[in-house]
Amino acid sequence: MERTGPYRVELDESYRPLPAVYLALLFIWFLSACSWTFNTYKNRHFSTINLQWTLASVPLIKALQLTLSFLFWYSCFYHQKCSLWMSFGVYVTGVLFQTAYFVSFILISHGYCIMYEHISISDRRTTAALGCVFYLTLVGYRASVPYFTVLLLLNYLISFSMIFRQISQNLSVLREQLSFVEEEDVQAMYDAVYMKYTMFKKFQGAMQIVVMAETVIHFNVDSSSVNYWLRLLVREWAQFCIFLYIGWTFRSQAWAPRFSVMPRSKGELMVPPIYSIEMDAETFREFSCREWHIGVPTSTTCDEGSSDPIVVVVQHPHRLPSGVTSS
C-alpha cells in the first residue's frame, strides 16, 4: 500500500483478486460449517457427539474470519475505506481459528470420545495449557514481536511430539485388542476395534501432512505482493482439505456394532480388550471360560417375542492396577 495523501491510501493492484478469493473461500467454509452442524445435530445421540461439536466450531470460526476478510478488502477497493477494527477482527479470528484447529487435533490424539468418554484431568490441563501458550505465541508471531518465531517453533515441536506419542499409544492399545480378539476368536468385536485402529492410522497420516504444511507456511520467505492471492488460495485450500479429511474420518455416523468408548479409571489406566458381548441364555449356560467374569440377565434389550432374556457377559482386564479392585 502507498500513501497518497493525509487520509487516502493507494492499494497495490496485485491485491485486487482478494475479495473474490475470500468470497469463494467463505462460501466453501460456510457450506461446510452448516452441513457439519446439521449432521452433528442430527446424529447427536451417538457417543462421539462431544468431539463433533468441538470440530463443528472450527469451520464456524473460519467462516467468521473469511467474512471479515472479504468485507475488509471489498471496502478497501470499492469504497476506499479500510477499517482498522475490521482488520483487527480478521487478526483475532485468524488466531482463534488456528488455536481451535490445533486443540481439536490434541483432543483427537488423546482418544477423546473414541477411546474414552472423557480425557483425564491432567490431560485436560495439558491441552488447555498448550492451547493458551499456542494462542499467545501465535499473537506475538503475527505481530512480529522479536523471538516469538522461536517460541512458536518450540511450541510446535512440543505439541506435535505429544500428539504423535499419544497416537502411537492408542494404536499400540488397539493392536493388543485386535490380537486378543483374534486369539479368543471373538469375531463380533473385531470390526469395532479395527474401525478405531483405521481411524487413528488415517489421523496419523493426516498429522504428518499437517506438519509438512505448517513448515512450508511458516518458513515461506516469499513475502512479495506478486501472486499473493494465489499463495493464499493454495494455503487456504490445503488447510480446508486437511480438516475436511480429518472431520470426515471422525464424523458422526452409525459405528460398527459394539463400537463403544471406554471410561477412564482412577490410577494407572488398564483398558480391557473387550468391553461387552451379548449372547442368549442357552449359549451362556454352555459357556465356559475363565476370562469371562459374570453374566447379567437384561430385560431392556430383550425382544418382546423372546422367552429367554439376553445375557451380557463382561470381561475384566488381565491385570488390575494397584489400589483398584474389580466389581
Automatic annotation (TrEMBL):
Keyword field: Membrane, Receptor, Transmembrane, Transmembrane helix
Database matches in PANTHER family: TRANSMEMBRANE PROTEIN (PTHR36329:SF1)
Organism expressing this protein natively: Salix viminalis
Protein name, entry field: LUNG SEVEN TRANSMEMBRANE RECEPTOR
Membrane-crossing segments per the record: 20-41, 53-75, 95-114
Keyword RNA-binding attached: no
